[in-house]
């Protein structure tokens, strides 16, 4: 027998038992974005490889080892997008959306990274991201954080995510700090693992991010980025912290928070949880004031974040049972006997015309009355509509309340009105 072809490792199918929860969560997220005046942008999944190399940075995990890159039939190097910001900026420049304008945008969709699959880490995963262009003050950074905080409340997980903040300053301040940090690391090479040694000259700030406990201990004595911050970045950060405090959003300043992508400056933040094991970052972002220029546009300040939807879904699943109730229908339409199936289809369409919000499922594939009632229960219907030969001949229908067991016979023309009453 031929071997079954299976999905690619780390790339998941999302089955009907899961998609109801996904839709509920996505609906909640989109409603909040809409309420803040953010608009959706839809972008291609494939972009030219140099876009990501330039935007994310050559010496990052993503570009060094996680990208799905291939040559197309013309020999052009293309990459499945590992994140959404680069494509968003590319599109913004290409369509003249950015210069001298304000944009509040969001996107949702699959991202691709060649990582070791585990809980909360996949090779195809989904992000919802927001990007704001044209605003430089800390107030808009704060708004993005308030918006995400509103999400956690709406999803019932607010108690389980904590905000971590840092400022990584200007490019110049970071260059100064970089020299100091390399100087320090050079005196302690013996403690560094291979990864850190490799990063020490190419991208030393990433050493701060190391998960190695010995390196973390060493870093307690390292020079601090906060001591090298430029004045303007300090003022921006103080402004942000004040706005958050005034808005009642608790946060922790984490001086080791540097983010894995090179385009950030000033504000960086993460929402983290301890409820997901090692994959604790649910939502991460920051300011990237030089990216637009770096990608060929005229300089425009920008700030944004991306949220991993799989991690969010895992959290909601674990913490908020209200969201995970399986989807049900309202009404199940049962029919049996000559001409009944066709009459049932017509009745169903008439009811749908009158009650577009109603969830009505029609029985197909026959089955006796008892079997069809069992199916109605399985789908969680509260009402069954029943059409037998007699009802069809008399243009009537039996309406059965599946909770109380009571039933009545009505003219078919009264069905919608009666259902509206019963289900209100
Ligand atoms: P991590 O430190 O977990 O690798 P990252 O710094 O690579 O995260 P970003 O590139 O900032 O993450 O992406 C933002 C969010 O997208 C992450 O916080 C996470 O929720 C989610 N994410 C990133 N990579 C994956 C993945 N491979 N599978 C599932 N979700 C992911
Ligand atoms: Mg990563």
Written overview of the protein:
This protein has 424 residues and is α+β, with helices and mostly antiparallel strands. The chain has two domains: 16-170 and 230-319, 2-Layer Sandwich (BirA Bifunctional Protein, domain 2); 331-423, Anticodon-binding domain (Rossmann fold), CATH 3.40.50. It contains 16 helices and 16 strands. It has helices at 16-35, 49-56, 61-66, 85-94, 138-155, 171-186, 194-202, 213-219, 231-246, 291-294, 309-319, 321-324, 340-354, 369-378, 389-394, 415-423; strands at residues 39-40, 46-48, 68-71, 77-80, 103-112, 124-133, 162-167, 252-253, 265-272, 281-287, 302-308, 331-335, 360-362, 383-387, 396-401, 407-411. The strands form three sheets. The protein has an eight-stranded mixed β-sheet with strand order 1-5-6-11-10-9-7-8. A hairpin with a 5-residue loop joins strand 15 and strand 16. The mean pLDDT is 94. The structure holds adenosine-5'-triphosphate and magnesium ion. Residues 61, 260 line the site of magnesium ion (MG).
Give the end-to-end Cα distance, rounded to a whole number of Å. 54 Å
Ranges where pLDDT stays below 50 over 5 or more residues in a row are none
Q: Give the amount of beta strand, in percent.
A: 15-25%
The CATH homologous superfamily of the largest domain is termed Bira Bifunctional Protein, Domain 2
**Bulk shape:** elongated
Going across the major beta sheet, what is the strand order? 1-5-6-11-10-9-7-8
Number of domains: 2
Bound molecules: adenosine-5'-triphosphate, magnesium ion
And the CATH topology of the largest domain? BirA Bifunctional Protein, domain 2
* Second-tier CATH architecture of the largest domain: 2-Layer Sandwich
In which range does the helix fraction lie?
25-40%
Q: What is the helix tally? A: 16
Task: Give the strand tally.
Answer: 16
Overall average residue pLDDT:
94
Gyration radius, rounded: 28 Å
CATH class of the largest domain: Alpha Beta
